[in-house]
């Protein structure tokens, strides 16, 4: 190395070279020491070694970037798997009869949802909702993967609502679609009153019961004439509950006098033909105080009422035997309209003679038990001229004749069921009226107190199963006769 010349490190810029004393440049020794101390001496690096080092550094850099990318892709893929696995939908469907409703709600995001909606027969609804939300996120940095999970669970409160509704149809008003080949057991079961035929005034006894009504819950309502009250018997009960009247004869709002007709309207209110008071009373569901809907002189006039029925529009049809007519009262009106009879008693097709029971079918067709004409009359809506559909106007006990027909109901096949009072039997007519009727209950040929006998059947109704309830008036009891259908069934019409 020559004096005044410093070797330059290959590959480094000129300004990185150490400064030493030179004879050529006038630099003080102190300055040289300061500069060399601040930058240090860089040893000489051979050219080939530096090139190799640069190549290795580049390869390492690429490898690190590739590793980071791979980790990022793996992290994202793992996050997707977590999100998919955290989505669960469970549907629970529970239904408890009779009137049921099931609601099922599912979610399809990253949410676990279970909804159970249960409706019981009393329309009591319990709803329980549980939701679990799971959120998963994946964050990737240079060479670090982190996973965080947040879980939230909320449970709603449980509420229960109970509502009881009395349904207006078709039980007690419109007969069921009875199978055409159905028969009834010839032995009756006593549902109210004393099975031995004795009368009484306690809540387990009756005295000359007249009209009956059976609702959709099989509750039995009885117009207990001589006890001046209406009793309600719940299923399987032998003791009744007074729901109208107070057991003493009178004309007060809480009294009745010879009640002879009873029905339940669509609101659950009790409608009573308060015969000897010449008025129609309504007892709002749960109340023993009556409201007068109609009374004497409001229809031509209103005489002794023998029966009443209510149609789907809540119109009341009342049989007025004193005036040989059937009157119709629309809701909220005390003025009636004559829809059958209305003149002097007679055998004409536009006449009646001491009519008793009546029945309205879903089409508005009116049927009347024309007692002293020994026949059943049918009136199309709006017509005052009837058609004879049972009996022929002559009293008797053959299949073609009736002796004091006193109550009538019709099933959805058009078959007619008649309480033949003096013959102590129940007769059935098909739509082929000319062929005569057939006896279905009380067919022993004699009246009496035995379980197979009737004595003065005064009214009859179907329950929701097709069983027949009969007011066995002179035996002071209500009898039930079970329906019988062949094991293989039969046509319903």
Automatic annotation (TrEMBL):
* Keyword Transport found: no
Where are the coiled-coil regions?
none
Per its UniProt record, what Pfam families does this chain match? NHL
- Name the UniProt key words of this record, in alphabetical order: Glycoprotein, Membrane, Repeat, Signal, Transmembrane, Transmembrane helix
- Matches recorded under SUPFAM superfamilies: Calcium-dependent phosphotriesterase
The segments carrying the NHL repeats are 197-236, 247-286, 445-484
List where the protein spans the membrane. 58-81
Record-linked Gene3D superfamilies = 2.40.10.500, TolB, C-terminal domain
What ranges does the record give for the region Disordered, renumbered to this chain? 89-161
UniProt protein name: NHL repeat containing protein
């Amino acid at each position: 190395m020559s004096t005044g010349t410093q070797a330059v490190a290959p590959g480094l810029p000129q300004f990185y070279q150490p400064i030493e004393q030179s004879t050529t440049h006038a630099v003080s020794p102190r300055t040289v020491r300061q500069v060399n101390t601040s930058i240090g001496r860089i040893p000489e690096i051979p050219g080939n070694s530096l090139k190799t080092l640069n190549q290795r550094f580049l390869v390492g850099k690429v490898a690190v970037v590739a590793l980071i990318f791979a980790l990022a892709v793996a992290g994202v893929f793992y996050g997707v798997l977590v999100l998919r696995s955290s989505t669960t939908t469970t549907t629970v469907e529970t239904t408890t009869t009779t009137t049921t409703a099931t609601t099922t709600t599912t979610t399809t995001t990253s949410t676990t949802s279970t909804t159970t909606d249960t409706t019981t027969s009393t329309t009591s609804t319990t709803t329980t909702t549980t939701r679990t939300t799971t959120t998963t996120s994946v964050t990737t940095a240079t060479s670090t993967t982190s996973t965080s999970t947040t879980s939230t669970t909320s449970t709603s409160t449980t509420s229960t609502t109970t509502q009881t509704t009395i349904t207006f149809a078709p039980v007690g008003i419109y007969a069921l679609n009875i199978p055409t080949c159905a028969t009834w057991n010839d032995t009756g079961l006593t549902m109210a009153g004393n099975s031995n035929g004795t009368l009484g005034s306690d809540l387990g006894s009756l005295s000359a019961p007249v009209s009956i009504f059976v609702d959709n819950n099989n509750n039995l309502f009885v117009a207990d004439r001589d006890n001046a009250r209406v009793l309600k018997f719940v299923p399987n009960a032998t003791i009744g509950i007074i729901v109208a009247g107070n057991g003493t004869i009178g004309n007060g709002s809480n009294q009745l006098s010879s009640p002879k007709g009873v029905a339940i309207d669509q609101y659950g209110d009790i409608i009573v033909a308060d015969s000897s008071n010449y008025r129609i009373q309504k007892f709002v569901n749960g109340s023993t105080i009556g409201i007068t809907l109609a009374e004497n002189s409001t229809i031509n006039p209103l005489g002794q009422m023998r029966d009443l029925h209510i149609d789907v529009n809540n119109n009341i049809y009342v049989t007025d035997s004193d005036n040989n007519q059937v009157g119709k009262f629309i809701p909220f009106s005390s003025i009636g309209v004559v829809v059958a009879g209305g003149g002097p008693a007679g055998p004409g097709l536009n006449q009646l003679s001491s009519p008793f029971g009546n029945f309205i079918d879903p089409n508005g067709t009116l049927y009347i038990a024309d007692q002293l004409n020994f026949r059943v009359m049918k009136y199309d809506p709006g017509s005052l001229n009837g058609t004879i559909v049972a009996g022929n106007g002559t009293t008797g006990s053959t299949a073609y004749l009736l002796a004091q027909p006193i109550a009538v109901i019709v099933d959805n096949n058009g078959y007619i069921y008649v309480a033949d009072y003096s013959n102590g039997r129940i007769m059935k007519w098909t739509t082929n009226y000319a062929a005569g009727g057939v006896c279905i209950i009380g067919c022993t040929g004699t009246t009496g107190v035995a379980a197979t006998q009737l004595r003065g059947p005064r009214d009859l109704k179907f329950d929701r199963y097709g069983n027949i309830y009969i007011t066995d008036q002179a035996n002071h009891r209500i009898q039930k006769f079970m329906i019988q259908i062949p094991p293989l069934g039969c046509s319903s019409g």
